[in-house]
Predict the structure.
Amino acid sequence: MVAQTNNSTNGPTDGNDLKISVRSVRKTYRLGRVRVPVLHGVDLDVKSGEWVTILGASGSGKSTLLHLMGGLDRPDKDSSNPPSVKFENRDLTKQSKRALDRYRADDIGFVFQFYHLLPELSVLQNVTIGSMIKHGRLGYRNHRAEAVERAESLLERFGLSHRLKHRPAELSGGERQRVAIARALINEPSLLLADEPTGNLDLKTGESILEAIIEHRQSAGLTLVMVTHDERIAERADRVIRLVDGLVVEENGTIS
Amino acid sequence: MLAMVAVMLSVATILITWSVMGGFLNALIDSGRTLVGDVAIVWPNVGFAHYDDLIERLEEDPMIEAATPTIETFGLIKLPDDRIELISIKGISAESYSQVTGFADTMWWKAIDEPTPKDYKREDIRLDPQYQQIFEDMESNGISMTRPHPKTGAIEPAGVIGIEVTGLNQRQDWGGYYPMPPMRALPDGGAERVDVFMPREGTVGITILALDSEGHPIDPVTQTIPIANEFQSGLYEVDQGTIFVPLDIIQRMLRLDEAKRVEIVKDDENPFAVEVDPVTGEIGPKMKEIIGIDPARVTTVLVSGVEGSELEPVRARIREIYAQFALDHAGEVPSSFQMENQIRTWEDLNKTMISAVKKETGLVLFIFGIVSFTTVFLVLAIFWSMATEKTKDIGVLRALGATTPGIAWLWIRYGAVIGIVGSVIGTAVGYWIVSDINAIHDWMGRTFNFVIWDPKQYYFIEIPSDVDPMKAAIVFIVGVMTCVIGAAIPAIHSARMDPVKALRFE
């Protein structure tokens, strides 16, 4: 059931230009013997090229929703009201593990709050590893030059061309996050899922990171789903979704 | 790094153990072969006749290098200090025995130019130029089994005794012997010194039981045997309980020498002829005496195949030759059927010893294998800990699209690299230690006064120092496999990790 709000639901319902569509998604975690319901039946549509920001308190299920959209997790099964997470009309809930791996490698990019760079690799290697995963170790040999060129171009764009051979430990928080964004973009995904990308940065650095994402989004026509606590970031998004008690609430307060 | 060191140590330990124990086995087997030749034709106790003919037939065959008659029996030996011991007595024909076996090389008392491996101070009296001629004479005496009489100088047949039989040769920490004069115990509780050096004036008394033509013991026979030299075969059991005596002496003592045979049979020319017994006066059929020769016998013929020949074909050929020999001497020698299991290779003859040493080697390897198997668990524990530490990174890789097998392969490949590097270093270290094991052992003795392998107590002077490339290859492969197996479980665990949990892992 999708609530109508200002001529729209939690996103456009008509178009073939839907990038990702979430329907009736529930998710419950088990903590020992205790079942902890996180999402209670979320519906959400995101158009191609749209920037949707998800706001919500800690534990409201923002990251869980992002993981479900990224194919990292699967929603709870419900035969009476089957859930679906459709990416370009492809239902991720019915995909094999292998297909989900391909989906994450080819179609989406993940940006995390704590960067999650691999400490043993250089900046350049941290970025190109996405390409290596996509093409496989052997296939990467044929794409290496192309990947390195693109990684260098992305890092240059993010002002890190002088840091290519540095290790993550030698970078500032802002620099690390820019490397993480470059890594997410190396395979030219059409959907970027960002989990509080500025949450661990000071205001100024966070702003510069946001600018980098916005600039890239505009030039590449990227669809962006961003989880954040920051209302000011939310204001700049095309659309803001608020998660309250595992349900999606539009800005006007309608509950889906 | 820790895992690599563990693999390196395990590989090196197993390679060293296997090489050294295998080396001892080979040394023991070689020693066991020294005085046996390749194949033995054995008919114990009564022995078999016409052995000269058999040897001639054998030596005519292109597969056979040489053959020699021997008699093997047990007896008692009376030593210069009057001790009496049980001894294995081998009657041999010195010249032909040396052609079949390494007998000539086993003479201990001989002039030598180079010191034995551990004799760094050149303490061996055999090196002394002053005694060179004496030792050369002793060597030739030993090989020919003759010795000049100490007083008359007349050449007399002599025996060669194992170096450890008399107990008068005191083994030194450099692996050689000092001859010590025996002390004879006296009834009053005292002792007197007997000034004798076995190869010059030493004699022993041997006592054996003579056998009749049926092989039954008759009477004990004792004979004094001068000693020409002492031998060291490399097998302690042989060297402390064996004496070689000229074949003809043993044949005489055992009554296996050529003898006149007298048979009293009915006179076939006139079956009805009768005669009166001069003692009893009784009348009986007329008898006559047939006088013949009972040929000399030996209990064993030792055979050596031509250089490079395989044992089994040589044995098979010997069986064929013996079969024809038995046919030609039917009724006088054991048939080929009776000899089926009596034609034995040197391996058969030393089977007990070889299998014991093999079992011991296997047991030691098994124990070290078990110890080294802990490396699997060590690698497993280290990799498990690494996988736990890298949980978040695994989650990131999964988020980037890495597959389950891809993650597993990452760890297994890492384990294989550790295994290969650890095994390469371990094999190299093991190879180096085994190759220089005697120098290392000597250094330990000099520096820490820590001697594991004391030639005074152990029979082999040196620790075997050859590395079999096949063994090295097997140990290397096992080392790599150990790491791969140890890495496989954490690899599977990592690969199956829920990416969401991995990303949230603290």
